[in-house]
């Protein structure tokens, strides 16, 4: 789907308004697909939970892609950490970074927790239009981070004067921020594939950035403004 060129709701049985309502609610509150199915039934609309799952798989990563050009710039003090997500009975690693003000820098779901995964995460974050090459990167004692940052400095991918700080207590801000994502993941612990988890988490993170007030002109906690912004992003009538 390409913003502004194709109708992302073409061929759908339900209207854009109904689909985006479901997407917004699922991605910002700790509910399951069956919970959402019951919420629709209460409004006289019959939507099967499997249909809701398919909507999230399509529109959650699309929301992440479309929201990024509208994000405020983050600052150069990165706080990086990983948390754990269970997918198909196994633990995988969610790399996440926020800046000193708590704004989301980026995220990456990874099967492994090593220097290669850390480099993939840093490279992804550095490509974003709302990020800057960091002056400080605060991490925990994971030995993979020094290996990754040294290799990236040698390759010219990371500013050579960027300071790596392995000070756990300074990372409280990102550890606290993990909670908002973990709270959302819990009702969906039945995620059956890595791809489904990645696509769903992209939507959780995008919605969290909107709710934090990272979008220019969209105040935090103003659900009406957030609804109108997302409607406009998808080219639907507000």
Structure commentary:
This is IS6 family transposase. GO terms for molecular function: DNA binding. It is a single chain. The chain contains eight helices and five strands. It is α/β, with parallel strands linked by helices and 238 residues long. It folds into two domains: 16-71 and 191-233, no CATH class; 77-179, 2-Layer Sandwich (Nucleotidyltransferase, domain 5). A five-stranded mixed beta sheet has the order 3-2-1-4-5, with helices on both faces. β4, α5 and β5 form a beta-alpha-beta unit. α1 (16-28) crosses α3 (49-67) and α3 (49-67) crosses α7. It is globular and about 60 Å long.
Write the layout of secondary structure elements.
Elements: H1 16-28, H2 33-42, H3 49-67, E1 77-87, E2 90-99, E3 104-110, H4 115-126, E4 136-139, H5 144-154, E5 163-166, H6 172-185, H7 194-212, H8 223-233
Parallel strand pairs: 1-4, 4-5
Antiparallel strand pairs: 1-2, 2-3
Helix pairs in contact: 1-3, 2-3, 3-7, 4-5, 6-7
Task: Name a few traits of the molecule.
alpha/beta, 2 domains, five-stranded mixed sheet, globular, Nucleotidyltransferase, domain 5, IS_Transposase, 5 strands, 238 residues, DNA recombination, single chain, Integrase_cat-core, 15% strand
């Amino acid at each position: 789907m390409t913003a502004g060129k194709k109708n992302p709701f073409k061929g759908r049985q339900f209207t854009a308004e109904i689909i985006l309502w479901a997407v917004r609610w699922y991605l910002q509150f700790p509910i399951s697909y069956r919970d959402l199915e019951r919420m629709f039934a209460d409004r006289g609309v019959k939507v099967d939970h499997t249909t809701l799952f398919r909507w999230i798989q399509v529109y959650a990563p699309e929301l992440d892609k479309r929201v990024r050009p509208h994000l405020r710039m983050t600052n150069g003090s990165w706080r990086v950490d990983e948390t754990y997500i269970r997918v198909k009975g196994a633990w995988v690693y969610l790399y996440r970074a926020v800046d000193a003000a708590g704004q989301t820098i980026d995220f990456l779901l990874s099967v492994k927790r090593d220097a290669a995964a850390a480099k993939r995460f840093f490279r992804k974050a550095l490509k974003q239009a709302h990020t800057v090459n960091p002056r400080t990167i605060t991490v925990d004692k994971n030995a993979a981070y020094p290996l990754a940052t040294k290799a990236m400095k040698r390759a010219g991918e990371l500013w050579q004067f960027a300071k790596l700080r392995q000070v756990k207590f300074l990372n409280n801000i990102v550890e606290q921020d993990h909670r908002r994502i973990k709270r959302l993941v819990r009702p969906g612990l039945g995620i059956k594939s890595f791809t489904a988890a990645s696509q769903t988490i992209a939507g959780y993170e995008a919605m969290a950035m909107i709710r934090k007030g990272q979008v220019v002109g969209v105040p935090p906690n103003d659900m009406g403004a957030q609804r109108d912004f997302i409607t406009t992003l998808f080219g639907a009538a507000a």
